[in-house]
Write a structure and sequence with these properties.
By secondary structure, the chain is mainly alpha-helical. Strands 1-2 form a two-stranded antiparallel ribbon. The longest helix is centred in the first third of the chain and has 30 residues. The model has no long low-confidence stretch (mean pLDDT 90).
């Protein structure tokens, strides 16, 4: 039992050292990435989240409108038009990377605690449509705000 315990402790220390090295590299890369620095002004966004979002977005010039960025993340509703029936909206498309949607969901949790307008919008949508739809709607709004931030170079302003 003692040998197994000592080996487990050695593995633990090795993994902790590796995690420290990875964290230092993340911090170094975020420090030199302009878009990541801008995204870090959003409450609840740290180095890893900022780098992940910035790397998935790439050059913001690729997106002509804020809705284009939300669409790339897979946060826009799909359209189920068949025959003469038009205007039927389905669930979100989920075309984008799932990690981005997960991270945006985490940002919503933090941001709605400090941003009064987003908190109120989420509350109203949740009351009318349900919690999951409210979460996606706020994620889409945050994606649009990110587009504006990266286009103008302005920091996030809590309202």
């Amino acid at each position: 039992d003692r040998i197994v315990l000592e080996l487990a402790i050695e593995r633990w220390e090795t993994i902790e050292g590796q995690l420290d090295r990875v964290q230092l590299e993340i911090d170094r890369r975020a420090e030199h990435h302009a878009a990541a620095q801008l995204l870090k002004t959003i409450p609840g966004v740290g180095n890893l989240t900022a780098l992940t979002l910035a790397s998935r977005i790439g050059p913001i010039e690729r997106f002509p409108r804020p809705a284009s960025l939300a669409n790339m993340f897979g946060l826009t509703p799909s359209i189920n038009d068949t025959g003469e029936t038009t205007g039927r909206l389905g669930g979100i498309t989920k075309h984008g990377h799932p990690n981005v949607r997960y991270l945006l969901g985490q940002v919503v949790q933090h941001l709605t605690r400090v941003d009064r307008t987003l908190r109120e919008a989420r509350r109203k949508i949740r009351k009318r449509r349900g919690a999951k739809i409210a979460m996606v709607a706020i994620m889409r709004r945050i994606a649009c705000r990110i587009w504006h931030m990266l286009r103008t170079g302005e920091s996030y302003r809590v309202t």
